[in-house]
Amino acid sequence: MQNRRINLPLNPLRSFAVASRHKTFTAAAKELGVSQVAISRQISTLEDFLDVSLFERGVRSAKLTEVGRAFGMEIAGLFDDLERATQRMISHETEGTVNLRVHPTVAHHWLMPKLLHFTRQHPDIRVRFDTRVEPLDFRGTHLDVALQLGRGDWRDARSRKLWDEEVDVVCNQTYLDSIGGLEKPGDVAKGELLHSRYRRRAWEFWARANNLDMDFNSGTDFETSLLTFSAAQQGFGLAIGQLGLLDDVIGEGGLVRPLDMRIPTGAAFYVIWPTTISVSVKTKRFIDWLLDQVGQPREFFKSGTPEKA
Fold first, then answer.
1. What's the whole-model pTM score?
2. Phi then psi dihedrals of residue 98, to 5 deg
C-alpha cells in the first residue's frame, strides 16, 4: 500500500529554516521582509504540526532546542537547493526576455504600435508585459523595467522622463456634431462626461484648471482609461484624453480635440529600472530604445544611430 504524502506546511518550514540559520527571530524577519511576530507565529504553527518544541522562548529571546538544531541543519540545505533550482529556471526562462510593467492604456496606444520596430532590431529579445495597476515596487518581483506615470520619485530605482503629461477634452466628431460643438470650456456641460476608475479625478482637475464651477462627478464610469478612450472614439461622450498617448488616434481622426487646450498635469511618463540589481544588456537596449522614441539622449549605449520607429 502506497504511503500517504504529508501535506507539508512550506511557509512555516521556510521561516524555521531561516530562523535556525540565524538563531534569532529578528534576523530571520529581516531576511524574509516580515515582522518578528510573523516569524514566531509561523514557527509555532510548525511546532504544532510536528508536536515538538523547536525553540525555547524566553522573555526577550528564543533559543534553539536540541531537536530544533538538528532539524534546522537537515532542512536548511534543502531550501537552499530549492532556491537555486528556482533561480536557474527563472534565469533560463527569462534569458532573452525583458519583463516590463506598463499600464494597459500606455501599452495599447503608445507602445504596441512601436514595438514591432524594436523586435525587428533585436530579434533575440522578447518583451513580456506585466499590466497590473498597482504601486511600483521592484522588490519581490522579476521586473526589469517599467513605463509609468508619476513624478520621478520611485524607491530604489533610477528613472528618465519620456514626456510630460498633458490633457485635453477629446471625443468622436459625430458625437461633437450631435451636441452642437464646443466653443468654450463651459460647453462641456452639454455632453456626457466619461470617467476612468484609475483617473477618477481627471475631470475635476480639468474643471479647476479652467476655473469652472461644474458637476464633474456626473457621467459614465469605466474600469480603465483604455475603455474610456474607446467609448469616446465610439461616440459615448467626452473624455479627458492623455495627449502623448492618443496622438496617433487623434492624427488618424478617431478622436478630435474641439477646444484645443493643452493642460499640463505636473506628472510625466518615465522609464524606470531598479538600482538594487545590475541592469542586463537586454534591458539597457530596451531603455535606450524607449528614449530614442521620444528623442531623448540614450542612457547606456551612446554610440550608434538612434532606433526610432
1. 0.69
2. -100, 120
Specify burial of residue 287 (Cβ count, 10 A radius: 0-12, 13-18, 19+).
Answer: buried
The Cα–Cα gap between 126 and 99 comes to 9
Where would I find the beta strands (DSSP E) of the chain? 55-57, 62-64, 97-102, 126-130, 145-150, 157-170, 194-196, 220-222, 239-242, 263-274
Cell numbers found for residue 58? 524566553
How far apart CA 69 and CA 216 sit, in angstroms, is 64
**Pairing verdict, β 55-57 and 62-64:** antiparallel
For the chain, the maximum distance between any two Cα atoms, rounded to a whole number of angstroms, is 84
How far apart CA 148 and CA 42 sit, in angstroms, is 36
Contact yes or no for 205/211 (Cβ under 8 A):
no
Which residue type does 66 have? E
In contact, 72 and 64? CB cutoff 8 Å = yes
pLDDT tens-digit series, residues 98-142: 999 999 999 999 999 999 999 999 999 999 999 998 889 888 788
The predicted-structure confidence for 12-69, as pLDDT tens digits, reads as follows 999 999 999 888 888 888 888 889 899 999 999 999 999 999 999 887 778 899 999 9
Q: Are 141 and 155 in contact (CB under 8 A)?
A: no
Beta bridge partners of 240: 169
